[in-house]
Amino acid sequence: MRAVHGLAGDPGAQPQRTMLAWNRTMLAAVLGAMLVALTAERQQRPVIAAVAGLAALALLVLVLRDLRRWRHEGNGPWTALLHVGLSVVVLAGLGATLAIAGLAA
């Protein structure tokens, strides 16, 4: 084990820090989805708002399930990474659609 500034590292702290980082990433993605949904609602685009709201809900359920499995079963974070990455791509597409629709209006 490598000492940092004269202190021995805690091997149990790294998984906890990683779990907290994934929780923050998931929270940011869900808030981004809700922001897209609220913006679409204000622009009177109900289909985009519904898709963004469903994406936020699906992301929340999937990633919380993945993180729980990772913590208890010791699986890697790859399924959570896949779900968060996919949701970011979907949200970017929805945001671009909103921006284009706002420019066209």
UniProtKB/TrEMBL annotation:
The keyword Transmembrane applies. The lineage of its organism: Bacteria, Bacillati, Actinomycetota, Actinomycetes, Micrococcales. This is DUF202 domain-containing protein. Keywords: Membrane, Transmembrane, Transmembrane helix. Pfam families: DUF202 (PF02656). Residues 10-71 form the DUF202 domain. It is found in: Endomembrane system. Its main location: membrane. It is a multi-pass membrane protein. The chain crosses the membrane at residues 20-40, 47-64, 84-104.
